[in-house]
Every structure is written in C-alpha cells, then in structure tokens.
Known about the structure:
The chain is mainly alpha-helical. It is built from six helices and two strands. It has helices at about 10-20, 25-35, 40-45, 50-60, 85-90, 90-105; strands at about 65-70, 80-85. A two-stranded antiparallel sheet has the order 1-2. The longest helix is centred in the middle third of the chain and has 14 residues, at about 90-105. It is globular, with a radius of gyration of 20 Å.
Amino acid sequence: MEWLEASTENCPVQLTLDVVGEKWTLLILRDAATGVRRFDEFRRHIGMSEAVLSDRLRKLTAAGVLTAVPYREPGSRSRHEYRLTRKGWDLWPVLLALKQWGETYAGDPLGPVLDLRHEDCGAPVRVVVECAGQHAGERTALGPGEVTARPGPGARRRSAAG
Length: 162
C-alpha cells in the first residue's frame, strides 16, 4: 500500500493536534514547562481571555496533559495550580522544535526570548531527529533525505469515498 492509499483517520499527528493543535494551547504548554502554574499567571503572561484560558485548561486536564492541584491562599477560596503530567512533559521536545524553527525563521534579531542551556556545560540545547538503532554508540542527526516514509502497521486503506 502506498501512502496516498492509506487512511489518515488514526494518524498520530492528527490525533495529537486534536489535543494540542490550537495556538493558545501550545502557549499554555510553553508557560507550564517554564514554571507558570496559576490561572492568573497564565492569563497575564499569555494575554488571553479568561473564557478561552478556562476552556483550554479544562481540555488539557481532561486529556491528562495537565493535572489540577488545589491550593488556597489565606483568606481566599480554593483554586488550582496546573502542572504538566508525564504525558505533558512528553510534549516538551515538540515545543523545543517549534522554538528552534521560530528562532531560525521568525526570530527576533536581538535573540531568543527564552534561552535554554544544558545545565552541565552551558551549551544551547537543540532538537534533532536520530535513528533508534544501535550504531556502535554513534548518534547522528538525520535529515529528511535520510528517512523513508511509508504506511505503518496501523495504516488502513482509504475508503473509495475518502
């Protein structure tokens, strides 16, 4: 079966975008990964409406990307902090890849807004695509011309109507 014959209804990219495919959602995840936890902090830092923020936090919590942890300031009602779950942290390389692309093609000439460095040596971090095979301990970044794309074991044939 060729790629164009494969149905994309169960494509992991499409299913992921169903959860995180909105601009505001990705900005919430960016801020959560950098330590923002509270509703008012998200709203103030990202500049989104309360209604949109409430909706996105609810969806991310329902999807298991964030977890809501109750807290209470003295004299105030109970509220929630939003923290990334393991599932949420697994989106971190996606956010870094978007950051990396943005710095290359849409970045501020003054430099990045967020500077991420390896804690041990201080070098900038970057996202690379690499082979999962064992190649004598060698790790090399792969370019698009070095990767073959074809339907996987979960691919289903497109219906005649689709």
